[in-house]
Amino acid sequence: MVFIPDIDRLYSDRAGKMRKSVIRELLRVTQDPEIISFAGGLPNPKSFPIKDLEGAMDYVMEHHGEVALQYGTTQGLKELREMIAERAYKEGIDVSADEVTIMSGSQQALDTVGKMFLNPGDTALVGLPTYLGGINAFRAYEANLSGIPLDGDGMRVDILEDRIKELLKQEITPKFIYVVPTFQNPAGVVMPEKRRKQLIDIANEYDLLIVEDDPYGKLRYDIPPVKPIKAFDDEGRVIYMSTFSKILSPGFRLAWTLASPELTRKMVICKQALDLCTNTFTQYIAYEFMRRGSLDLHILKICELYKPKRDIMMKAMEKYFPEGYICHKPKGGMFAWVTLPEGIDTEVLFLDAIKEKVAYVHGKAFHVDGGGGRSMRLNFSYSTDELIEEGMRRLGKVIKNKLEKEKAVL
After folding, report:
1. How do residues 189-227 score in pLDDT, each as one tens digit?
2. Given the DSSP bridges, would you call strands 123-128 and 358-359 parallel, antiparallel or unpaired?
3. How many CB atoms lie within 10 A of CB 15?
4. 105 and which of 193, 253, 258, 275 could share a cystine (Cβ 3.0–4.6 Å)?
5. In this structure, are residues 226 and 92 in contact, taking their beta carbons and an 8 Å threshold?
6. Which residues of 311-338 are buried (b: 16+ CB within 10 A; e: fewer)?
7. Which strand ranges, in their side-by-side order, compose the sheet holding 209-213?
8. Can you tell me the mean pLDDT for 30-42?
9. pTM listed for this prediction
10. Residue 171, SS3 per DSSP
11. Which domains does the chain have, with CATH numbers?
12. How far does CA 107 lie from the centroid of its chain?
């Protein structure tokens, strides 16, 4: 007979409050090969530069094998950090390699930020909507998340400043502002340079930090580059993070942060408790891939692959979705953000969609205030062109059927 202890009584308060990732759970549900899934933020496997990476791997094994297969430093491979610092300088960010930390994916970077700054009951400011991974990372440290609405130019800085003033009157000092300013996940909007500077001004005036999450900034289809918020940071208030997951391979689990020397030192200490060091082998491969000048060319190929997929999704929505839906064409990134007509709850609608073998992420998952009930996030990067068309047809059918049922009840 197996003894099963009462595990629940042993969990920490923090562990007991943790919740599953909605997206990870959706991905599990959508493993059925017949389901067309627009749920995950998955790069298209056709985008992976397999042949070029094979060459880089062979070179690493031949020339650096003994060190590439060994433990590395917590902060990351120096050569890779130097190369990232050089690329950041070209974008207007003046940092040294000592201010770069290689992370085991952006989620680790977000978790590290939570560990560094958040005590139970502390407040952080986030977008409405915002990236679910950020929500989960910060809530794991029992933080209160205060949502700031977005418009077509990203986070509303006027509302942000008013919210900060309200909180300060209540003797609550927010710990940081979390923002995804470029092709925002999930809304797809881009914060213009003027608003980025305003955000810096607010952080300076109220003595706050900004956490700038930039996974998608290189996936541009219709607009020129926009300088990161970090480029306007003269006081060391911005922790910038980005990743190789969307521009090379998510399987490498490589991301990086740019932060002031003081913040970087603390991040390295926090990371040491998580994994000692990021995968040394994949760091060497990424460095060799970049040293050969392959990354920028590869990013162009990704954009050439994804832009037509976005266009196919937009046209298919116009063809199959009912009147009254709202979806502004994203100028980059991987997602379309759709708001449906009144009377539809996309969380409830998801069950009907699964029956029709199509999946998405409902909008409530990205809202810390319980909103987003009429919205959904659709990924256009992963599926084939044919499946995007068919998936939109199925989803349009589900939405129309739901609207007809609602009208019948009325």
Report:
1. 999 999 999 999 999 999 999 999 999 999 999 999 999
2. unpaired
3. 10
4. 253
5. no
6. ebbbebbeebbeeebebeebbbbbbbbb
7. 100-103, 255-258, 238-243, 209-213, 176-179, 123-128, 144-151, 154-155
8. 87
9. 0.94
10. coil
11. 7-49+296-409 (3.90.1150.10), 68-293 (3.40.640.10)
12. 8
